[in-house]
Amino acid sequence: MITTAPARILLPLAAALALSACTTGFEARVARFQQLPAAHGNSFVIEPRDKALEGGLEFATYANLVKQKLIAAGFQEAASPATAALVVQLDYHITAPREKVQSRPGIGFGAGWGGWGWGPYWGAGWGGWGAWGPGFGGWGGWGNNDVYSMTQYNTTLAMRINRTADKQSVFEGRAETVSSSNNLTKLVPNLVTAIFTNFPGNSGETVRVRFDPAKPAVAPTVKPLR
């Protein structure tokens, strides 16, 4: 005979597993347009599109990340702006917070412990598990959803590369993400990684880039957006 004691252990465990199933990682939407020349022999300098950021330590930190990515792609840093073949203009922006109301099936066991018949109902499907059916999925059953509010921020990194000789644009890229954090020191480096994933990319294509910042050795996944 199976008592209700195992249920008291298994059901909170089921709830914990349901919560742990949520995926982790960073995701950004990346759009790029490019006619970049061959990297070899082309030097660059980086400047802010917003001149108010010029000379700032924060901008210099992010610009250094971009510099490292460009060097890894085969470009070289110019000795001075006057000798640069390319000018890289960098900009980043985060929106004011906004509240988004969402709902999800509640995780609860409103039917009570004593009324759950395990043995005869197992395998009959969600609706046929005795008192399991009406109790699991919400504090009052499947029909009741948990409604909650979530603070969200939109963060964008924009990068444009101009050819010095004729001032023409040869690369325009944008990486955007939605998050519950406004920590630019975490968000901007991740957006730099996203915009340089498969750099310079297919011109005119928008892709979704996903990776785990805690696992830098694992290559990001890239999926075209339809």
Automatic annotation (TrEMBL):
Residues of the DUF4136 domain: 42-201
Keywords annotated in UniProt: Signal
Residues in the signal sequence: 1-20
Domain of life: Bacteria
InterPro entries given in the database record: DUF4136
Gene3D superfamilies: 3.30.160.670
Name listed for the protein in its UniProt record: DUF4136 domain-containing protein
